[in-house]
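Practice set, problem 2.
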Amino acid sequence: MTSNDRATDTDGIDRQNGPTRRRFVKAIGAGAVIAPFAASTAAAATEPTTDPDDLAYVETDGAEFVVDGDPVYFNGANNFWITHEYEGTKERIDDVFDLYENLGIDLVRFWAHGEAKDGPLALQPEPGAYNEDALENLDYLIEAARERGIRLIATLVDNWDHEGGMLQYAEWAGAESRYEFYTMDETRGMYRDHVETILTRENSISGIEWREDPTIALWELANEPRLEQDDVPADMDSLEPPEHREILGDWFADMSSYIKELDGNHLVSTGSEGHYYGTWEDDYPNDDWGGQDYIEHHSIDTIDACSFHLYPDHWDFPLEEGADYIRNRVVDAHEEIGKPAYLGEFNVDDTQHGLETKNETLAAWYDVADEHDCNAVLPWQVVLEDTEDHDGFQLYASESGHLIEDYAAVVDGKSGDESDPDVIAVGEYEARDADDDGLYEDVTGDGETTHEDVTALFENRGSDGVQNNPEKFDFDGNGRFGSSDILELLGRI
């Protein structure tokens, strides 16, 4: 083959022997193109982005949460107060998320509901009528989380009536029980309307619909959904098992499918306490009273992850049994159901046990969660130091923050890329450091540095591998990646 037979693209690059310096400069437009390109890559290298388009969604792969295909574990927290008038201001939100960032918390569960409650941040004062101030407060919460690299779980209704919850929907429909909330067309329709309002909400700050924002990791259908056997209208006999389990399961299946129709991006879970479905003779919470069935309900196809909570003080069993409670739920989620498991709420009442016992117990629970690879843990609830401890279940950094920080190190070590750490994906190539100088001059990964590496770097200069690792391709040593680095690599050949 003669030199005239070589394949040369219209941009002036010789595909066989690679670009000459003159041809390369001509191809990219000399200084007029080099300067702005270098400036843009410098900005990308030094300025963290908060653009939702630059985030990947949390997904599942079997029994793991994954981001960009890599396994990820979460060190989380709940904050009930953050959407209230008590703490629901922009300054307060910033203070809370600054605390979380400092503690290494990277997943926060919050309420995306509030039916007919009092106060300036009542989210839905009347059916279908929404308080824009409350919605903008949540918009700001989402932005505050994203800026700090924190993901969110948004809960869409409450079993309990602190925020109105299921019983408020029933009251709006002229009913009185959770049975009617789960079964009436009118209440189911109002819940669907709320789901659509939240998922299609356009963030007033970012302009991104919530259903298109990867900051949100997961939608929870409800907080601690139950259907107890006697939670029926006054003129109706109590439910006979397993009828209440089937009603609850039907609601989970219907509403999770509806969310999937509206939003193909996000995960969905039940938000349940994770009780097994037993018999009347079994000890609570593993009897048949509340209608929950951890295995059956989380096996629904449109449920992506298994939710469970842990409150021995409320459920009247010894603190020491909490470790087995966690172990059993995680193992069953991973091995029997084949999905991730997350401990969505847990804590010990220090007004009953004291702070020392509380911290010792929580440390043991964190240990068993780590041992069995629980995919996320979120204690109830991590608050600022000036937040009133109204029930013994608040966690303050000054008292228990070391537990959260320690677990942050645990999940950091378990999360991330399982691929070869010595390889950077550059387009279709796997770039390597050929001489251990910290620079990835072997762009094609073939063990040599040739004109082909220069061509590959030029063609893939905008790839994630290059843009996210500018220091690995900073051949001219000016602290950033730009066109001059491609020229420098060419000059070394």
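Problem 2, part (b): a different protein.
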Amino acid sequence: PANFTAEELKAAVDAAHKKGVKVYQTCNTVPRNDEIDRLPDFLMESAETGVDAFIISDLGVMTLAKKYTPNVDIHISTQAGITNYASANEWYNMGATRVVTARELSLEDIATLRAKTPKELEIECFVHGAMCVSFSGRCLLSNYLVNRDSNRGECAQPCRWQYSLMEKTREGEYFPIDEDENGTYIFNSKDMCMIEHIPEMVKAGISSFKIEGRAKSAYYTSVITNAYRQAIDGYLKNPTDDYKPEKWVVDEMYKISSREYCTGFYFGHPRDNAQIYYDGGYKRDWSVMAEVLYSENGRVFCRQRNRFFEGEVLEVLQRGVEPYEVTVTDLRDENGEKIDKAPHPMMKVSFECEKDIPPDALLRKAV
């Protein structure tokens, strides 16, 4: 994936703002001298698109942002490694409006940080997604093995690869680090999932929940964001210490591509509970079949993403409501010709449906 052009960023910001959504632009890589020279123009161009904040980890970048784009808020990235209130306070004193804490903090640590920082300083914490084997993403494995710098947005995630142990003088003789003779995934961490712990996170003083989403699909983003939105709104309606989201909300966590889940460092050092030693891949049990374009005259018009057939039962992922099922009946192509399947990528089709399914809803099924 490439960066947005100025025109693309402006269009994205405008679209988000029309929906009441803010846009924070990441500027949290480790810049070199030649990049610093180009940064003022980049920051000013980005500010003109209407972005609401820059996410920054470098002092030099922050200095330039304050100088050239003083009206854009500054959020301090998790890559700054904020683990204590003294650090958070200093970033605030320098002009930050929000800090994203290191993933390695417990809820108790965050509560202390909240209590000893100005109430105007927002605290953002990761609640869902991949965990890094290194402290707050400060890893050199990717750079060393494949020349892709994890601190510059290019991590190849070699921590997910399979490794074996070899003694220096016994070349070719690989010793399993675990019982499996094929090797072990000694660096491979589980994914974080805190959707069942909304009360604890709110009580700790977290202002904003951050979902890790680098290189994730639109489907992943839709599912996870929708689920956490429902969980948070449910808690706000019933703010009790024993609040739990509805079962369907939690079930959504298992309808996307993910690894096994854990709660990270929030309840103390995770130790063995946060590692996956036997596998390095994702689990994927659901696929998107189509994207809804619109509904009209008792029919749903959609764009195919994966092959599906007449008579199949698909589940509808729609913002703000529990997923529900529809059956594909009277399937037709965009010319109105009856077909028994939708085999071609991105082909437009329609089928009869009593439900008025809104645009951008997704049709999926278990695979």
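Answer key, part (b): The mean pLDDT is 89. The CA atoms of residues 111 and 203 lie 8 Å apart.
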